[in-house]
Design brief:
The chain is an alpha/beta fold. The protein is 55% helix and 14% strand. The protein has twelve helices and eight strands. The strands form two sheets. It has a six-stranded parallel beta sheet with strand order 4-3-8-7-5-6, with helices on both faces. Strands 1-2 form a two-stranded antiparallel sheet. The protein is globular. The protein starts with 11 loop residues before the first strand and ends with a helix.
């Protein structure tokens, strides 16, 4: 009996010190489903500007995230950064809530079971009802809302046991960044599934949060929409992280442009040497 090949994950590029995967919805779904069906243990996360900047400023978190099998560009500015810095030619971002639905659709059709971990009990109940309505044959092996405090060692062991006993091949983690990334990293090699960190997707699909209009999403203004809805909670987050991202990306672009110009000059100089 042949041993299945290990899943090949999309290539990564460094953006502000964080390794971001240059990938598309189609590639991401295909790759996650292949890993899930082969019962591989992997971690997938999706980073918008806030998550990216947060990881770039925390060495421990950055090291953890850079070990993930895939970190997709959840925000348009992150996609733009990949295109500007590395000419990846990505036409769209890989948005966590949308990726979650596409994975659930494929999981339903391919008989792969999922597990839901995160948010509150009411949100989780609403999410399960919504997914059951959208995908009647989807196997939801389990779901739970963790307490808003660190788990004890006994609780943590019990969580791992419940997830693994459920038989789920995909675990959607909806704890928000960076908490979900830290959770996924802490359970690498222990949770026998592909962990997919999807941020606020639980709340969006449960109907407790509204998504930004499509035109704002395409323009990279989702942060502005969320800021208008929750100004007191989010103003500091976006003021700080957006400013840091813009400044550091501008520096990286300037450095990249200078390096390319220098290489071009050197090449032209060599070609002109008799």
């Amino acid at each position: 009996m042949e041993t299945p090949e290990t899943t090949s994950w999309p290539p990564k590029h460094e953006v502000l010190g964080v390794s971001i995967s240059a990938t598309t919805y189609e590639e991401a779904v295909e790759t996650v489903m292949r890993a899930a069906k082969q019962r591989e243990q992997a971690v997938v996360s999706l980073h918008a500007v806030h998550a990216l900047v947060t990881a770039s400023r925390d060495g421990g978190l950055r090291d953890a995230v850079n070990r993930f099998e895939m970190v997709a560009p959840d925000g348009q500015p992150v996609r733009w950064a990949l295109n500007w810095l590395y000419r990846t030619g990505l036409q769209e971002r890989v948005y966590g809530p949308e990726l979650m639905l596409r994975l659930c659709r494929q999981a339903e059709s391919q008989g792969v079971s999922i597990y839901l971990y995160g948010s509150t009990k009411p949100v989780l109940a609403a999410l399960q009802a919504e997914l059951a309505e959208r995908y009647p044959d989807l196997k939801i092996a389990g779901g739970e809302s963790p307490p808003f405090r660190p788990l004890t060692e006994e609780e943590d062991l019990a969580v791992v046991e419940r997830i693994n006993k459920s038989g789920a091949a995909i675990v959607f983690v909806g704890l928000g960044a960076p908490k979900q990334d830290l959770f996924a990293h802490a359970h690498r090699g222990r949770v026998a599934a592909v962990q997919v960190c999807v941020g606020a997707a639980f709340d969006f699909h449960a109907g407790t949060l509204k998504m930004a209009p499509p035109w704002m999403q395409r323009a990279g203004l989702e942060w502005a929409y969320r800021l208008l809805r929750e100004p007191r909670r989010l103003w500091r987050r976006y003021l700080v992280t957006n400013s840091i991202f813009a400044a550091r990306l501008a520096t990286a672009l300037a450095r990249k442009t200078f390096t390319r110009s220098q290489r071009l000059s050197e090449r032209l100089s060599k070609e002109g040497t008799p």
